[in-house]
Specification:
3-stranded antiparallel beta sheet
Length: about 70
């Protein structure tokens, strides 16, 4: 499973990190994984947490890619 974070949509609410600190991290108050078309591999065993963090995003900036 992979994920992508749209930098232009990330509002810095930090709900993704609150929901899944094992998967998401911050940089300058915003999701550190935010990047144009960059896809990140979710570590094995953390798929459900990645989904939980994505669902917590108020701007739907995180896209899960199966």
């Amino acid at each position: 499973m992979k994920l992508r974070v749209a930098a232009d949509l990330c509002c810095g609410a930090q709900r993704c990190v609150a929901a899944a600190p094992e998967v998401y991290r911050l940089a300058g108050g915003f999701n550190a994984l935010a990047g144009a078309e960059t896809e990140y591999e979710v570590p094995q065993g953390f798929e459900q947490k990645a989904v939980r963090g994505a669902r917590a995003c108020p701007e739907s900036a995180i896209k899960i890619i199966d």
